[in-house]
Amino acid sequence: MKLLAQVLSASLCLSFAASAFAESTAGYAEGYTYPAYSSPGVPLLDSFYLRYTGDDHHVESFGVQPQSAGNILLVLGDDNNDDEYYYSVEHKRRTTAGIVTGSFVDFCNGSCLYPLNPPGSGYTFALRGFRFYFRNGDHHLDQVGILREAAGVRTYFNDDNDDDPYAVFVDYAWLPNSMVQTSGQLTGTATGGVQRALTNASSAIITGFLVDYRSSDHHVQEIGVFTRTSDVQIYYGDDNADDAFSYRVDYSLLRLVISLPPIGGIIEAAP
After folding, report:
1. Any residues with CB less than 8 A from the CB of 100 and at least 6 apart, and which?
2. How far is CA 77 from CA 62, 74, 112, 196, in A?
3. Would the N or C end of the chain have less CB density within 10 A of its end CB?
C-alpha cells in the first residue's frame, strides 16, 4: 500500500505539474506609473479598474501592461497627465509549460482588425496587458476594447466620429485548452456600472472586453472589469454615471492547479 501511495503521488505530481500565483497592486498615481509587479509566471489579466479621483476628464492614454523588468505600466491620463487616479489591477500567474506568448502594436482610427492566428489547434486566446494612446491629443471616449475574432484581434479606441489616430499595444497568450475549463461571454447594457453573476468567477481571466456609450461620446471618470468570487463587475462612466453603455466581456475559467508534495505534506490548490 505504501508503494502504491508513492506511485500515485508521483503520478499526480506529474499530471498537475504547474505553479499558480495571483498578483495584484492598488494605489494612486498621476499619468504613467510603474509599481513593482514581479511574481513568477505568465501574467493573465484577471481584473483592472482605473478611476479619476476628482472630476471626469478627456483621455489621451489608458493602459494596464505588465513589463519584463518586474513592474507594471499603468496609465489613465489626458494630455497633461497631471490628474490623480486610483488603480486596482490583478493578474493570475501561470508557469505551466505550453503557454505561447506574443505582442503586437497597431496604428488605427476608430476600430481595426489585426490579423492573428493561433499557434495550432487546441489553444485559447487570453490577454496579458494592453495600452492605448491617441496620437493627436486627448478626447472624449465612445468605445474602448479588445476582442478576439476568427481572423484576428479587433481593437476599439475612439470618440463618436472615429477619426482620431491612435496606437495600441496588445500583449496576449495562447493557453493550451487543457488549462481551460470553459469560456463564455457577458453582454448587456448598463448605466455607470453593473454586477453580473458568474459561478466560479474567482477562476476567471479576461480574454476580451468592449464598452461603448449608447448615445454619444463622453468624458470618463472610471473604467474597469473586476472578476470576483461569484460575479463580474463592469464600470464605464463619467462623474454623474447617468450615461448608458453597452458592454461585452469575454472570459475563460481556468482549471484548478494542484501541487502535491511528498506523502505527509500539504496539498496546495489555486484557480
Report:
1. 119, 123, 173, 174
2. 7, 10, 23, 28
3. N
Q: How many domains does the chain have?
A: 1
Mean pLDDT of 121-138: 96
Strand partners, 157: 110, 144
Q: What is the distance between the alpha carbons of residues 131 and 228, in angstroms, rounded to a whole number?
A: 23
Q: How far apart are CA 24 and CA 91, in angstroms?
A: 6
125 touches 118 (CB < 8 A):
yes
pLDDT in tens, 229-269: 999 999 999 988 888 999 999 999 999 865 444 444 443 44
Determine the Cα–Cα distance for residues 157 and 167; give it in Å rounded to an integer. Answer: 9
What is the C-alpha separation between 222 and 50, in angstroms, rounded? 6
CA distances, 142 to each of 7, 20, 189, 220 (Å): 58, 36, 14, 9
The answer to whether the predicted template modeling score (pTM) of the entire model surpasses 0.85 is yes
How many CA atoms are closer than 13 Å to the CA of 79, on its beta-carbon side? 7
Report d(CA 236, CA 190) in Å as an integer. Answer: 9
Among residues 204, 265, 201, the alpha carbon closest in space to that of 230 is found at: 201
Question: Is residue 59 exposed (0-12), middle (13-18) or buried (19+ Cβ within 10 Å)?
Answer: buried
Residue 159 DSSP class = -
Helix (H) or strand (E) run with residue 86 in it: strand 84-94
**3-state DSSP of 104-131:** EEEEEEEEEEEECCCCCCCEEEEEEEEE
